[in-house]
Amino acid sequence: MDEIAAYYNLGKEQNRLTTGASELEQVRTRDILNRYLPNKGVIYDIGGGAGIYALPLAKAGYQVHLVDLMPLHVQQAEESSTKQPDFPLASVRVGDARHVDFADNSADAVLLFGPLYHLTEREDRVQAFKEAYRVLKPGGQVFAATISRFASMIDGFGRNFVLDDDFAGTLKQTLTTGQHRNPSRKPGYFTTAYFHKPEEVPAEMEEAGFTWKASLAVEGVAWADNDFMTKWENPQLRVFVLELLQITEAEATLIGASPHLITIGSKSA
Ligand SMILES: C[S@@+](CC[C@H](N)C(=O)[O-])C[C@H]1O[C@@H](n2cnc3c(N)ncnc32)[C@H](O)[C@@H]1O
Question: CA-CA to 134 of 20 to 30 Å: which in 30, 144, 264, 269?
Answer without folding.
Answer: 30
